[in-house]
Amino acid sequence: MKQVIVARRDLGMGEGKLAAQVAHASLSAYQDASRRARKKWQGEGQKKVVLGGDSESQLFELADKAETEGLPYAIIRDAGHTELEPGTVTTLAVGPARDDSVDRVTGDLPLY
Amino acid sequence: MKQVIVARRDLGMGEGKLAAQVAHASLSAYQDASRRARKKWQGEGQKKVVLGGDSESQLFELADKAETEGLPYAIIRDAGHTELEPGTVTTLAVGPARDDSVDRVTGDLPLY
Question: Are residues A53 and A8 in contact, defined by beta-carbon separation less than 8 angstroms?
């Protein structure tokens, strides 16, 4: 079981901003998961991997794939109080789910 | 309501590593919070702030303060598969809780 969070590298987010957006996506996708998937993932140490994306459209395409695969996921838009324009899509989290299921969605992306 | 995550700057974590550790702390402290605190925080947009810490001992001191204040919190140790020694303390999350309660614990720290 794992959760993958894809964060946009093209936005030039600062480290703290990036971390907060990744955390936001992680928690939101967790809430979208079944009780069973949550428990299994946590029992295995809640593995998380942060990958790099390049654009808003890419994040939406990956979200569509996650939807098609029936996986929990969440797209995060920034509230825009600080670095970014309000409503900017920053991150997508997929899972917790089986490793191979998540890889079918995000398998080609590089580490952030 | 807010949640503050304190991450160690002295470890030189890469951006993706940092983000994953912050997400781990965020979710763990969320699970330590009451149902009521969770719902209130989420209703307000789950505000998260990432601050910088300097040492393991500092994170433990802050965790003690959170405990004394009766706030939800979580200390994260890295599993050590990649950048860090196994068991390295990387992050502390405090909250979700009222802003002023969290500030009593982490108020003096700089943004990460």
Answer: yes
pLDDT of residue B10 exceeding 80:
yes
| Chain B interface, Cβ < 8 Å to A | 5, 7, 15-20, 22-27, 30, 45-46, 48-52, 79, 111-112
Whether the CB-CB separation of B89 and B76 falls below 8 Å is answered with yes
ipTM of this complex: 0.91
What residues contact A70, with CB distance under 8 A and at least 6 apart?
none
The pLDDT confidence band at residue A39, using thresholds 50, 70 and 90, is very high
Mean of pLDDT values over A77-99: 90
Q: Which amino acid is at B44?
A: E
Topology of the domain covering B2-106: Bit1 (3.40.1490)
DSSP conformational letter for B90: E
Q: By a Cβ cutoff of 8 Å, what residues of chain A touch chain B?
A: 5, 7, 15-20, 22-27, 30, 45-46, 48-52, 79, 111-112
- In chain A, residues with a C-beta closer than 8 Å to the C-beta of B45 are 79
